[in-house]
Amino acid sequence: MSRPAPRLVEVGPRDGLQSLPGVVPLEAKVAFVDALSLSGLSEIEAGAFVSPKAVPQMADSEKVFAQITRKPGVIYSALVPNEKGLERALAAKIGKAAVFTAASEPFNQTHIHATIAESIERVRPVVAKVKTVGLPLRAYISTAFWCPFDGQIAPKKVVEVARRLQGLGINELSIGDTIGKASPDEVRRLLDELLKSVPVEQIFLHFHDTYGKAVANALAAWSEFGVYGFDASTGGVGGCPYAPGASGNVAMEDLVSAFESAGGRTGVDAAKLKAAAALLVPHAGPRLGKISA
Ligand code: HMG
Ligand code: MG
Prior knowledge:
Elements: E1 7-10, H1 12-16, H2 26-37, E2 43-48, H3 61-67, E3 75-79, H4 83-91, E4 96-102, H5 105-112, H6 116-133, E5 137-142, E6 146-147, E7 151-152, H7 155-167, E8 173-177, H8 184-194, E9 203-207, H9 214-225, E10 229-232, H10 252-261, H11 270-278, H12 281-284
Parallel strand pairs: 1-2, 1-10, 2-3, 3-4, 4-5, 5-8, 8-9, 9-10
Antiparallel strand pairs: 6-7
Helix pairs in contact: 2-3, 2-11, 7-8, 8-9
The chain binds 3-hydroxy-3-methylglutaryl-coenzyme A and magnesium ion (MG).
């Protein structure tokens, strides 16, 4: 099994900060992203152009994008839910757009008040416009293993949603363990099916770490299936405001350490991640997963 170098996407400034009880001040967000830019990461999801009523923590994403210091070679991406969000995101000069849906109907209804089919129709014009302007694109599939309302999700459901997204011309899929409950065997079962339909280079795994299994999951996917795209959040901060009980994303520093120990060169400087995480201490407090000083 070939094991390419891990490709790590930092989602802390979006997935991490969106879930904190308070709104992190703009200058702290900008300092966090700027510190992450120095760590060797090549992609940072820096904000979300979603409804500010739904997620007030992301309401200042325009200002974040305007004030960060963009390091050449780093992609600064953002979550984009609909055409209104895309207009805002393009004005803010994002480097990649990320749309989202889920593999569970009740989660999608609770989260974005739409069926899976409706949510895919909602992003169709977003995808078309993103392609016209020539930006890269990813789609998230949430609750790909477990749903807080519907229990375990069958791999065939995830494959079905992935195929529909591929039908729109999306060629990067981030497969979300939204509530952080998946086990390595469940990851194996999903990848056994998914890799029949989706090329390995198009797959990212997005593990939350509620039960401490995320690193084991990532190593199983990488070493046994050659999947090399992973999302993580520096400091392990965050959760999902729409998934009761979900804790933060797997900590980027844990993934970097695990891959480096297993011979995967990440190109990321762990000391610089630690410095970035330390900037969150006053804002995230006990919600900071891994680095507390
Ligand atoms: P909607 O259909 O307009 O319905 O948006 P709504 O009732 O939710 O809209 C409320 C208000 O927001 C309306 O304004 C809209 O115009 C406005 P009003 O008429 O009341 O004055 N609005 C917007 N304003 C600015 N920018 C926008 C925008 N869209 C609507 N883009 C929608 C439905 C889903 C878009 C909205 O509810 C929304 O943005 N929700 C937030 C979704 C979100 O951010 N979820 C968390 C991120 S996803 C996640 O964490 C999972 C992931 O990490 C993977 C994983 O772990 O599984 C990616
Ligand atoms: Mg997430």
